[in-house]
Amino acid sequence: MGTITRSFANNITSGGTFDATDLTGTIPASNIADASVGNITDVPALVIVSTVASDPPSPDTGQIWYNTTDKVLRAYIQGANAWTTGGNLNTGRSDLGGAGGTDTTTGLAFAGKNPGSGRITNTESYDGSAWTEVNDLNTAIGLHGSAGTQTSALSFGGRLSPGPGAYVTQTESWDGTSWTTSPGNLNTARGYLAGVGADNTSVLAFGGYTGSPSALTESWNGSAWTEVNDLNSGRYSIGGAGNQTAALSFGGNNPSPGRNTETESWNGTSWTEVNDLNTGRTYLAGCGTQTVALSFGGLVDPTQTNATESWNGTSWTEVNDLNLARDRFVGSGTTSSALGFGGGPSLINQAATEEFGPAIVTTDLGVS
Questions:
Q1: pLDDT tens-digit series, residues 8-21
Q2: Where does residue 53 fall: left (phi above 0), alpha (psi -120 to 50 degrees), or beta otherwise?
Q3: Phi, psi dihedrals of residue 33, rounded to the nearest 5°
Q4: For residues 275 and 261, is the Cβ–Cβ distance under 8 A?
Q5: Is the dihedral of CA 72, 73, 74, 78 positive or negative?
Q6: Domains of the chain, with CATH numbers?
Q7: Measured in whole angstroms, how far is the alpha carbon of residue 67 from the centre of its chain?
Q8: pTM (predicted TM-score)
Q9: Which residues on adjacent β-strands are paired with residue 254?
């Protein structure tokens, strides 16, 4: 039955009965006859308070108590994913680029447009609570594509001037410390494009605006861009998720249908139309993978939206909204741990960061 670390003699009560409540040890799985518990590896701790007159002010996760005033059994448990406020960017901006990791502790914000400064080069790194300024891009830019992680990111395309002006093909690579201008540029200059990728050597750029909505798709190998098969529908200011060989594009703008609900899936060779977003929008943010993605914010005429939708590989489902309706911003992370930062609709909101993840809530257990 395993090793018992307490002497039996210490557990004989004055009445002659055996008290086993504080014996410790390990019972081998082979000694458990009931197969239904044969694969148990861990049971979360539950801290039980039998009776209290009012709810604990700062309960622990997993804590259960009986409220004698309300006559109900309650617990402090993990609820549905929701958005909460994170640390603000040091420099507010819209039309920015962004990258990150798989949770809310790693983010990178770069370039964009600040109403007081025009196009900027500022780069900031997020640690889960605050943004820190790091080395700037070489060229001030906005409306550019972006992809990668906090330590290995790529910026491509966009527009240099804050007003009407030519779109560019230039590409810059981030190695975790500084930006390097790459000799390999996009084949087609454009702005308002989307990008996805695992790092600064493996990126897919798609959609955008060249003077009209673009369906162009280009693949980056760390030194050069190669044109590959186009989107089925030309769109700009679209959302994206996934990586170079398995991507998802959604939403965006095409003057003919307007704010778009269209979603397309990339298999490494071609795009296939799949089920649409529930809410058509442009200038939206996205993150995740081809099969498990998140779409949030954007512009739904005539105002910004805080709508958030979750993709399960087949269809989109509406989930908890952003706290702040905004557009022209970026996101990173996964469907269970995401970041949204920068964007509109006004100066005061362009530095705002939100974190998406499990909410710990007090809930009634239905026993009274």
A1: 455 556 655 555 55
A2: alpha
A3: -75, -35
A4: no
A5: negative
A6: 8-80+360-364 (no CATH), 89-351 (2.120.10.80)
A7: 37
A8: 0.81
A9: 258
As a whole number of angstroms, the distance between CA 121 and CA 137 comes to 5
Q: What is the pLDDT of residues 232-272, one digit of tens each?
A: 999 999 999 999 999 999 999 987 767 889 999 999 999 99
Sign of the CA dihedral running 23, 24, 28, 34: positive
Q: Nearest-CA neighbor of 113 among 165, 174, 175, 49?
A: 165
What whole-number distance in Å separates Cα of residue 172 and Cα of residue 255? Answer: 30
Exposure pattern of 188-220 as b/e (b: 16+ CB <10 Å)?
A: bbbbbbbbbbebbebbbbbbbbbeebbbbbbbb
Which residue is it, tokens 């990339």? 266
**Joined tokens for residue 85:** 């406020």
